[in-house]
Structures are given as C-alpha cells and as structure tokens.
Amino acid sequence: MKILILSRNATLYSTQSLQRAAESRGHQVQVIDHLMCSLVIERNRPALFLGYEPLSGVDAVIPRIGASATEYGAAVIRQLELMGVFTTVCSESLMQARNKLHCMQILSRHGIDVPKTGISAGDTCAGMVYDQITRDKAVVKLLASTQGLGVILAQTRSQGLSLVEGFHRVGADVLIQEFIQDARGSDIRAFVVDGKIAGAMLRQALPGEFRSNIHRGASARSIELSEEERYLAVRSAELLGLPVAGVDILRSSRGPLVLEVNASPGLEGIEAATGADIAGKIIEYIERAKCEEATIGKGQSVKTT
C-alpha cells in the first residue's frame, strides 16, 4: 500500500514511528505537510495538489493535524475522503474532538461522566456560569487548547472571572470547568486503536503543577485500566467516530471522568511508558480496514453481475 502521513514536521517522533512501522511491513510511505496542499473542487472530480503535482495512487492516509492548523487540515482530509481515500481520522471527527465544548456535549449526551463544564454568553453571565460550576477553584481553558497550553487553574472565583474576561477581551471563548482535586495532578491516557485499548499510562504532573501533559514535564508509567475505565475510553472514541484516539481520564471520588478525547495523540509518551508498538497497531488497523474494504468491494461486484 501507499500510505500518506499528513504532518507539518517529518522529524517528529510520532511521524517517524508511524513511518518505520509502515515501511517495516513493506508499505510505501510519503510524509507531506498538509499546509502545502492545494485543493480543487469540481463536480465528481475532487483533486489535491502537492506543489504543482496532483496527488494520486494513495491507499490510506494517517492525519497528524496540530491545533494550529485544524480547519485547513480538516479540509485536506475532507478532500481525500471525497477522492475515496481511506483515512484513520475523518474530518468531522477531528473537528468534534478538537472543539472541547462540542466534545463534552457529545460525551455527556450519551451518558459519559465528565467534569462539570460551562461557557458563558459574554462577561455579564460569567459569574452565573462560574457559580453553576463551583464557588472555589476552577479550570479555565481555551476551546482548542492542546498540550496544556491555554489551560489555567483559577485559585478563586474572582481570579477565574478575571481570566474569563481577559480571554474575552482578545476574542477567545473559554470553558469554565470543575477542578478535580482528587486527581492530585494525575490523569490517565488510554490509547484506543480500532475499538481496543492499545496501551494506557498514568501521567503525573510535576510538584506544584496541575497539568499532567508530558510536554509540561510530567512523568508517565504503564498501568492497567479498570473495566469501567476501559469501557469509557473505548466508548468515548466510538462516540466521536475515532478509530484511533487518546482518551484522557481523571480518577475522582465519584468514579472515572473523561476529560477529553484527542484525535491526533502523540506516540512518544505512550510507547516509552508501555513499551507497546502503538504505531504498529495503527498500521495493522489500516491493513485490516483495507482488506475488509476490498472484500466488500468484491462482494458488491459479484452481486451486481
């Protein structure tokens, strides 16, 4: 197969791990920057160009879309979908997962327990919304925050409201979210591939830090999930239409809570902590999906004739 990896940086660990895993199985791999892709829309003839050359002959695509290029990245994925190319992350699912408010709405609607979360209609209602969440500490976060950026812990109500107002002044909408003290600066990253847990790690934030992102210096170790945690991870990925996902879970006194679902989860932390070949599992998923696709295609062909 010819597999396309959409990545802004070919030297990133995740990109290289996926490339090695695919090439070790005999696949041809091309890494391209999705911001360098041009799209041409025409009735029944969607086309994608890399520079001046049309892209063709691609069997599958693995999108590695960062938060800074979500919308254009989703447009590139959508174009590939129109061209009939198999993708491990569809454009709609990427957009749903990347918008934290939308993600919380989908999960809560289907009975997944999440930290209590709100968003205010401007500064006037911010106090009311804050009081619906808590009268104490709260997490204020951007709708599309990633790697812990744009996520701030407000120690008091007044500080929280000042943060909300400050973000509003620069035209940014933010969530006000319940702070889960029980988590003690840790969370679980469960990596889901094709409806199964491919690996899980417990991330522990540095002393004095509440964000447990590896990029913020957190440590990580492999863990075994409870049955409820396994269910929440797999079900959350399913609800967002993500065959490949990183699901972040907080352990609390009222049970596990899904914090967010990542459509382009990094591989370095999870592979180092668990020793699992997560990239290889993703390539195996593509192989199975393409095999099923071919089998269905043959069946339809036979039925038609």
What does it look like?
This protein has 3 domains: 2-89, Rossmann fold, CATH 3.40.50.20; 116-179, ATP-grasp fold, A domain (Dna Ligase, domain 1, 2-Layer Sandwich); 183-282, 2-Layer Sandwich (D-amino Acid Aminotransferase, Chain A, domain 1). It contains 9 helices and 16 strands. A hairpin with a 2-residue loop joins strand 15 and strand 16 (255-262). The protein has helices at 13-24, 70-82, 91-98, 100-109, 126-133, 157-169, 227-239, 268-274, 278-304, and strands at residues 2-6, 28-32, 37-40, 47-50, 53-54, 60-63, 86-87, 117-118, 138-146, 149-154, 174-178, 186-193, 196-204, 219-222, 244-252, 255-262. The protein is globular. Helix 1 (13-24) crosses helix 9, helix 2 packs antiparallel against helix 3 and helix 5 (126-133) packs across helix 6. The strands form 4 sheets. The chain has a 5-stranded antiparallel beta sheet, with helices on both faces. The protein has a 4-stranded parallel beta sheet with strand order 2-1-6-7, sandwiched between helices. A 4-stranded antiparallel beta sheet has the order 8-11-9-10.
Q: What would CATH call the architecture of the largest domain?
A: 2-Layer Sandwich
Rg: 21 Å
Number of domains: 3
- The portion of residues assigned to helices is 25-40%
Task: For the largest sheet, list the strands in their spatial order.
Answer: 14-13-12-15-16
The outline comes out as globular
Sheet-strand content, in percent, reads 25-35%
CATH C-level name of the largest domain: Alpha Beta
Looking at CATH, the homologous superfamily of the largest domain is: ATP-grasp fold, B domain
At CATH level 3, the topology of the largest domain is D-amino Acid Aminotransferase, Chain A, domain 1
Q: Report the uncertain regions.
A: none
**How many β-strands, per DSSP?**
16
